[in-house]
Structures are given as C-alpha cells and as structure tokens.
Design goal:
Blueprint: E1 17-21, H1 29-39, E2 43-46, E3 48-49, E4 52-53, H2 59-72, E5 75-80, H3 94-111, E6 115-120, H4 128-148, E7 152-160, H5 166-176, E8 181-186, H6 190-193, H7 197-204, E9 208-213, E10 215-218, E11 224-227, H8 236-246, E12 251-254, E13 260-261, E14 266-267, H9 273-296
Length: 310
C-alpha cells in the first residue's frame, strides 16, 4: 500500500489519512481492528499483538495476523520495531537489530508496507563523540540493509543519539544520504524529553514522512500526564498547522499513551482501552477540521523533494 494520502490538486489541501498504533487500543488484533472500525479508519500501525513484537511472532501467528488484516481490509502503514530503541543501548548487541530488520523485511513485504520505525541508540556511559560515531556507524549499516529490501527506516524523535536534537537528526540524514532513511515526527515527545517540538519540527520538516500524534503536559514534580490532542503542552495544533502548510501528505497516526506506554511499563488493565482510543481519534478529527479551515484560508506550500527547511 502507499503511505501517502492524495497530493495537492487545484489548490486544495491533501486528503487526511488517519491511522493508529493498534496496541494502544487493545493487546489483541481483534480489539485493535475493532477500534479502527469504530472510527471508520482502515489504516493501522503495528507494534505488538498479544504483547509480542511483530518480529517475535512465530510463523503460524504471523500468518494468522496477516490473514486477519486482509479479511478486515486493513492497510498497514508502518511496523514499529525495537531497532536502536530505548531498550537497546549503543553498547548492546548489534546483531539483535540486524536480525530483527531481516525478519521484518520479509514480514513487511507480506503486510504491504515499506516503513519500519527505528531510533538511534541511547547512550551507555560513552563520551558524546564515541556515542555519535558508533550510532552513525550502526545506522549506516541498518540503512544499507534496508536499501537491499526496498524498505524505508523512519527515525523517531525519541530516545537515541539523534532523538531530541534537530542538528543531529540532520547530521544523521546527511551522513547516510539515502532515500531509505526518513524521519518519523512524534509531536508529543517534546514534553517528556524536555524540548520544543515545534522548533525541532521547523528545522526538519522537509524530511518528515510519517507523524505520530500524542499530547502531554507536566505537573508538579515533573510527572508527565498524557492528554487528548490539543489539550496539552506539546503544540499539537501548531505542529499540525505547520505540516499542512508545508504540504505534508503522509498519515496522521495516533499514539494516545493513555492505556499503554511500553517505555515505562504502564499498561492499564481495565477494558476501556478501545473506547479511549476512539475518543482520542475523534478528538484528533475535530482538531484537524479546525486546522484545515485555518490553513485553507492561507497559502499552501507544496512539499519539496525532501530538503530540510530551517
């Protein structure tokens, strides 16, 4: 499937295509698909099913997953891997990442997506210079592997060497210089990681191929609470506006973090995950309608071929 919505024509904005990270709604695929069906969406982002990463499913379980997605008419926009993520520091086994990428290469071909979410390795006691050198070396090898399989690695602004700094994101892209590496921009990550998401977005917007929508606010003591989109401190409305004005035509994928947050072992045990996911999706739809009206009133800038705009 194509990850892009229709392009700009006749001066109109591109159509909006919504998706969601399925396990944020329910651990099982049936619940994940139920949430999408209630929203009237048909595009899903896969991370885990029944608590198991897509690369770790046995062949029988993966075949069942693929068959159920086909039967439901669901398109997969992206697979969120653990490659170079918050649980795999720069001093860890690189073979784990290469093996996961090779498994996902076969599985993404079956699922019909070219996109795999990655990060760029959290530090583990190295100097900044050594951390950066090793991260760039590993990421280069991963992108070369992705090129051989026709995949695109989407680097998320999250944990890792290039996770929270726009200059490092641009250095990563320039160093590797491959169409098999693009950016996944998560609007809500600025609050927990302590940076201005809109400022980072402005610097890298020309390289963004996929967007995660979440929102958050901090309260006394530094605790982070996740909110409906537009109700927190992440600048969701401003970021959506900037993306649309730039001509972004990718998918908006929700990651509410209200019921499941893998990085801090938060997993609510009640049965309201699907309902909360649906509420979140509806809130995003309403917010995007407001943003579209604002953007339609002003000039629309067509997306370029990937050059960054500072």
């Amino acid at each position: 499937m194509s990850a892009d919505a229709p392009s700009v024509t006749d001066g109109r904005l591109p159509g909006i295509q919504y998706a969601g990270i399925g396990d944020e709604a329910a651990p099982d695929l049936a619940g994940q698909l139920d949430a999408l069906q209630r929203l009237g969406w048909r595009t899903i982002e896969l991370r885990t099913v029944d608590g198991i990463a897509i690369a770790d499913l046995d062949d029988r379980a993966f075949a069942r997953l693929s068959g159920e997605l086909d039967a439901a008419g669901a398109d997969v926009v992206c697979v969120d891997s653990r490659i170079a993520n918050w649980a795999r520091p720069i001093t860890g086994r690189f073979e784990d990442d290469l093996n996961e990428l090779r498994i996902l290469a076969r599985r993404c071909a079956t699922l019909g997506t070219r996109y795999i979410r990655v990060m760029s390795y959290p530090n583990a006691g190295l100097s900044d210079a050594d951390w950066g050198r090793r991260a760039l070396c590993r990421m280069t090898h991963l992108v070369q592997e992705a090129e051989q399989h026709g995949l695109v690695l989407l680097h998320e602004n999250c944990s890792g060497w290039a996770g929270i700094r726009a200059d490092r994101m641009l250095d990563l892209l320039q160093h590797i210089d491959s169409p098999a590496l693009r950016l996944l921009f998560d609007i809500g990550n600025g609050v927990p990681y302590g940076y201005d998401a809109r400022a980072v977005l402005d610097a890298v917007i020309g390289h963004v191929a996929h967007v995660h929508v979440k929102d958050a606010r901090t309260r006394a003591g530094g605790q982070v609470d996740y909110t409906l989109p537009g109700e927190g401190e992440s600048g969701v409305r401003e970021c959506l506006t900037a993306l649309l004005r730039h001509g972004y035509t990718g998918v908006w994928s929700i990651e509410p973090h209200t019921h499941l947050r893998p990085h801090d072992d938060h997993n609510a045990t009640d049965d309201d995950g699907i309902a909360a996911f649906v509420r979140y999706g509806r809130a995003l739809e309403r917010l995007v309608e407001l943003v579209q009206r604002e953007v339609t009133a002003g000039p629309v800038v067509a997306a370029d071929d990937g050059g960054a705009r500072a």
